[in-house]
């Protein structure tokens, strides 16, 4: 409804926390609203690929603090993201949107393997491609996965949604009351100032390859649709 989409192909990162509505497991109301927004922009002709996090199930770093081997804990984290992918797939298909899940860890019964050229073909046909299991390797995050997948499928922007924060701040707003939100920042400045809303690996991959990123909050209705359409929202991060 509000203008022509600015981006033709986007990579949307959804954190696992969003799927759980702040708790363990899945919140169908939240996933439903999210799917409505994605369906809306897909109908406007935007090609949407999604990288899904898994923080509503397991985070490797947290499990390893409880005594688990870090790499094994990270694999558990990756498996959690696949459950979120299947949930998103289901809600999107209920809304008439064609989808494909591609997993970085092979599991033929539930997902295609990650094949980048095939992912691009799906996008060209108007299917939403949902990437699961991160990069398939421990010690990485799904934020970094979002940057890598965006580059490989030639997305025009990374739309990095965050839970509980609506952009990049000069400091951590949860601990520093003087922190203020930035409308724009360069990757170099964000890295130099150690602004950690997004992990450094993701920032530096995008910086080196001159891929823009928009960091925005999920609070408030319609933010995903707004970001995908290219409306100014959150913080624009550029090389
Ligand atoms: N993970 C991993 N390699 C990857 C992506 C994810 O090992 O390439 C694991 C890691 O343990 C991480 C978990 O999967 O904590 C869930 O992903 P993430 O924490 O990025 O999810 P989010 O915070 O977005 O919900």
TrEMBL record:
It catalyses: UMP + ATP = UDP + ADP. Inhibited by UTP. It is found in: Cytoplasm. Keywords: ATP-binding, Cytoplasm, Kinase, Nucleotide-binding, Pyrimidine biosynthesis, Transferase. UMP binds at residues 54, 74, 135-142. CDD domains: AAK_UMPK-PyrH-Ec. InterPro entries: AceGlu_kinase-like_sf, Asp/Glu/Uridylate_kinase, Uridylate_kinase, Uridylate_kinase_bac. It holds the Pfam family AA_kinase. SUPFAM superfamilies: Carbamate kinase-like. Catalyzes the reversible phosphorylation of UMP to UDP. Belongs to the UMP kinase family. This is Uridylate kinase. It comes from Spongisporangium articulatum.
